[in-house]
Amino acid sequence: MKGLKFGGDMYVVLIYDIEVDDNGAKASRNIFKICKKYLTHVQKSVFEGDITPALLQQLKLELNKHIRENRDSVIIFKSREERWMQKEFWGKEDDKTSNFF
Amino acid sequence: MSESFYLFSDGELKRKDNVLRMTAPDGNFKDIKVNMTRDIYLFGEVSLNTKTLNYAGQLSLPIHIFNYYGFYTGSFYPKETNVSGNLLVEQVNHYTNEEQRLIIAKEFIEAASYNILRNLRYYNERERDLESSISEIKGLRNEIKRTSDIHSLMGVEGSIRKVYYNCWTSIINQEVDFEKRVKRPPDNMVNTLISFVNSLVYTSCLTEIYVTQLNPTISYLHSPGERRFSLSLDISEIFKPLISDRIIFSVLNRNMITEKDFERDSNYYYLKDGGRKKVLKEYDECLNRTIKHKELGRNVSYRHLIRLECYKLIKHLIGDKKYEGFKIWW
Amino acid sequence: MRVTGTMFYYYFVCHRKLWCFINNISLEDESENVLLGKLLDENSYGREDKQILIDETVNIDFIKDWKILHEIRKSKSIEEASLWQVKYYIYFLQQRGIPIEKGIIDYPKIRQRKDVYLEERDLDKIKEIIEDINYIAEQKKSPVVIESKICKSCAYYEFCYI
Predict the structure, then answer these.
(1) What InterPro entries does its record include (chain B) (predicted)?
(2) Percent of chain B beyond pLDDT 90?
(3) Where does CATH 1.20.120.920 sit in chain B?
(4) Is B97 helix (H, G, I), strand (E, B) or coil?
(5) What are the b/e assignments for A68-87, b being 16+ CB within 10 Å?
(6) What pLDDT digit, counting tens, does each position of C59-104 carry?
(7) Which of B68, B123, B234, C93 could serve as a FRET partner for B325 with CA atoms 20 to 30 Å apart?
């Protein structure tokens, strides 16, 4: 799964909104756990990071098992590279995407 | 594409759901996105259990470990998933046959010394008078072809390095007391930096070898007993001038790293945490830098050049194409 | 050597790829395209019995009532290879007493399918290919690079052209 070649890499921001109902908590938990394998968790329901098209597709397929049509929504913002996306912090600056800890 | 994670904090590295989580003593944590991770570096005092290692193994994730002083102590090298019996036989054959071993070993030195020359030429064009060292190394390079055994080849290599290191005080703008390379333990700023960055290159080569079918313990220039993964030492030789040396020149000449970043212990002269982080940031950036590959016609990262070197070696070993070491072409 | 479906497929794609594959110099794990193909396989047909490994040799996408077998493909490129791979599957199963009637190649992305039958005259060719694959496997040296336009998207591209 590592060091995939070919197919342009990209930088994505993923946000989701899960309806709070009887199964909402479970759906939310599952979606959260899946996203964490691919992207960095930056805010409550926001993830971001580098990814390849195939891995994004894999993430989508994994999520599709838990997203409930007509209830939950996931939005992906795609950008060619991280540096082409201007990012500003208002309030607390928190460098969660760093690979240093 | 995939990423390396550098963990400096003390704490615990554990499997948490489907990720690896590093938790610091104060409760802060970092989740490592396992599907996107290539390898993990541990610099702090970290506890982990077999569950962590089993998970890392399952994910084929090498973990590189450094001690308190920032010296490399070893790697968790997961069970090989990519093995080829026939290739292993060829790898061994090329080692046991002196002549064939020498062909590969010479190519490593040819390439490494070429890259060394490139560094010297660069600085020679920037008001350092390195002309005489350059011609001396050129002379020594001519001897590579003529050597008839590994021992004398290593001798030539040693002489080239000596001339090279002698230029460092002219290349480096800061006042440094670098006279010769001292390894165990390094005794000054430059030696400490060399040891540190070289060990990083070694670990990166190891990570790349891991994903190929090459066996990391069978090497050609270094003897297989020298270190556990001696093939990694061989391949690092080629990339040290491009990666390590340039990083060292750059951090020193920009005064990013100075004497203040070091500390002297009774036995050690080592980089403090802050300095280590600065160097690692540079290192990570350097490996992600890309260059248009002239034969492949696509952009490849410096790190990927290491992988390509493994491919070339495999092709040589299976009798497909004679190995030519990587030479800086830009 | 047991000839697998993948070997049969590679035989039509590139002998060098076939040789590397047989010698376990595999680069498939690393490729975006291979991953995309795998995802397609895993997700195209809900939970029907997909991916059956028969006799530890051929891996068939799924079989309906043991009469029709399906193979899923991403695109029509190298159609001949897919065609012969399916013919080989039918042959392989018939040899083991399973009377497969036909195979179907599915292209879910373009919503097309193609029927494949094993005909009398194919038998000799299949036997010939099996022999040929064994011959390639025994070669000490790898076959040459094919320099084709399909190379660019192959998992072995860098390996071959470096």
Answers:
(1) CRISPR-assoc_Cas1, CRISPR-assoc_Cas1_C, CRISPR-assoc_Cas1_HMARI/TNEAP, CRISPR-assoc_Cas1_N
(2) 86
(3) 85-318
(4) coil
(5) eeeebebebeeeeeeeeeee
(6) 777 777 778 888 888 877 788 899 999 999 999 888 888 888 889 8
(7) B123
What residues of B form the annotated binding site for Mn(2+)?
A: 157, 222, 237
- Compute the C-alpha angle B196/B329/A4, nearest 5°: 65
Distance from first CA to last CA of chain B, Å, rounded? 23
Distance from the C139 Cα atom to the nearest Cα atom in chain B, whole angstroms: 11
- Which residues, 6+ apart, have CB-to-CB distance to C85 below 8 Å? C5, C8, C9, C12, C71
Q: With contacts defined as CB-CB under 8 Å, which chain C residues touch A7?
A: 32-33
Chain C residues near residue B296 by CB distance under 8 angstroms: 157-158, 161-162
Verify whether the Cβ–Cβ distance A61 to C39 is below 8 Å: yes
Q: For CATH 3.100.10.20, list the domain ranges present in chain B.
A: 3-76
CA separation, residue B220 to residues B69, B72, B149, C162 (Å) = 30, 22, 11, 21
CB–CB contact C31 A6 (8 Å):
yes
- In sequence order, what are the residues at sequence separation of 6 or more whose Cβ sits closer than 8 angstroms to the Cβ of residue B111? B238, B324, B325, B326, B327
Question: In the B/C pair of chains, how many CB contacts fall below 8 A?
Answer: 43
From the list B84, B296, B318, which residue is nearest C142 (CB)?
B318
Any A CB within 8 A of C31 CB: yes
The candidate with the shortest Cα–Cα distance to B244, out of B62, B155, B93, B119, is B119
Task: Measure CB to CB from residue C32 to each of A2, A5, A61 and give the nearest one.
Answer: A5
Task: Indicate yes or no: CB of A49 within 8 angstroms of CB of B60.
Answer: no
Task: Answer whether C23 sits within 8 Å of B211, measured CB to CB.
Answer: no
Sorted by sequence, the CB contacts under 8 Å of residue A32 that are 6+ apart come out as A41, A45
Angle at B137 between CA B143 and CA B185, to 5 degrees: 105
For chains A and C, CB pairs below 8 A equal: 35
Residues of chain B contacting residue C142, judged by C-beta atoms under 8 Å apart = 318-320
Domain B85-318 fold is Four Helix Bundle (Hemerythrin (Met), subunit A) (1.20.120)
CB distance from C36 to chain A under 8 Å? yes
Mean per-residue pLDDT, A48-76? 92
Contact at CB, A4 and C32, closer than 8 angstroms: yes
Distance from CA of B267 to the nearest CA of A (A): 28
* B49-93 per-position pLDDT tens digit: 999 999 999 999 999 999 999 999 999 999 988 889 999 999 999
CATH superfamily assigned to domain B3-76: CRISPR-associated endonuclease Cas1, N-terminal domain (3.100.10.20)
Q: Which residue ranges make up each domain of chain C? A: 5-31+48-161
- pLDDT, average across residues B170-196: 86
